[in-house]
Write a structure and sequence with these properties.
The complex is a heterodimer of chains A (120) and B (107). Chain A is mostly beta strands. Chain A has no helices and 11 strands. Classes of the chains: A mainly beta (120), B mainly beta (107).
Chain lengths: 120, 107
C-alpha cells in the first residue's frame, strides 16, 4: 500500500533552516510528483510547490521562491523540502502529498505531517 | 492567483441532516475543483475530484456539483464521524490554492 512517512518534529530559531523528509513506499517513487503543503496552527492549507522525482525539476509558489528547496534521493525513495531564513509565521505542519497520477494536481495520498516550530 | 472562497467558516448540524458547503472561485476553473475532509490532528483526505467525481472508499453520502466558479459539496444524512473541516482546492492553474475551510460540528 502507498505510504508517505515524514520526519519528526523540529524546533528552529528564526533565521535558521529546516529540512523535512518524506519517504515513499508502495509505488514507484519516480512515477509521481511529490507536492508540499503546509498548515499554520488553526489555519487553512497552503500549497508550497512540487518536485518531479524523476528529473529533480519542479515548481514552487512565488511566495516561497528563493527560500524553499525541494530535492530527492531516488536511491531511498525520499523527497526533501528545505525552508531557509525561517520566521515565526513559518510555524506550521508541513505535509508531503502525492497526486493520483503524476501530472495531476490533486492529492490522494498524504504524509502524516511534520510539525515545525520557529521560536527564539 | 485563483482565490477560493468558502462562504461559511462553521456549520453546526444535527445528525441525519443534509449539509451543503459552497466554494466560489475568483475566476472560471471549469471542473478543476476537489474536496478534502480533515479531522483534528489528521492529514487531509480526498473526498471528491473534478467537482463531482466520487473517490473509491468514500461513503456515497458525499457528493459534489458545480462548474465554472460555483461549487457545492453535499453530505446527505450527516453522521457523527463527519465532524471535520472541509476544504476545496483548485487545480486549474498554479499556484494551487485551497479555500479557507468550513468546519462542520455535530449538534
Amino acid at each position: 500500500q502507498v505510504q508517505l512517512v515524514q520526519s519528526g518534529a523540529e524546533v528552529k530559531k528564526p533565521g535558521a533552516s529546516v529540512k523535512v523528509s518524506c519517504k515513499a513506499s508502495g509505488y514507484t517513487f519516480t512515477d509521481y510528483y511529490v507536492h508540499w503543503v503546509r498548515q499554520a496552527p488553526g489555519k487553512g492549507l497552503e500549497w508550497m510547490g512540487w518536485i518531479n522525482p524523476n528529473t529533480g525539476g519542479g515548481n514552487s509558489a512565488q511566495k516561497f521562491q528563493g527560500r524553499v528547496t525541494m530535492t530527492r534521493d531516488t536511491s531511498i525513495s525520499t523527497a526533501y523540502m528545505e525552508l531557509s531564513r525561517l520566521k515565526s509565521d513559518d510555524t506550521a505542519v508541513y505535509y508531503c502529498a502525492r497526486p493520483e497520477t503524476s501530472n495531476l494536481y490533486y492529492f490522494d495520498y498524504w504524509g502524516q505531517g511534520t510539525v515545525v516550530t520557529v521560536s527564539s | 492567483e485563483i482565490v477560493l472562497t468558502q462562504s461559511s467558516d462553521f456549520q453546526s448540524v444535527t445528525p441525519k441532516e443534509k449539509v451543503t458547503i459552497t466554494c466560489r472561485a475568483s475566476q472560471s476553473i471549469g471542473r478543476s475543483l476537489h474536496w478534502y475532509q480533515q479531522k483534528p490532528d489528521q492529514s487531509p483526505k480526498l473526498l471528491i475530484k473534478y467537482a463531482s467525481q466520487s473517490i473509491s472508499g468514500v461513503p456515497s453520502r458525499f457528493s459534489g456539483s458545480g462548474s465554472g466558479t460555483d461549487f457545492t459539496l453535499s453530505i446527505n444524512s450527516l453522521e457523527a464521524e463527519d465532524a471535520a473541516t472541509y476544504y476545496c482546492q483548485q487545480s486549474h492553474s498554479l499556484p494551487l490554492t485551497f479555500g479557507g475551510g468550513t468546519k462542520v460540528e455535530i449538534k
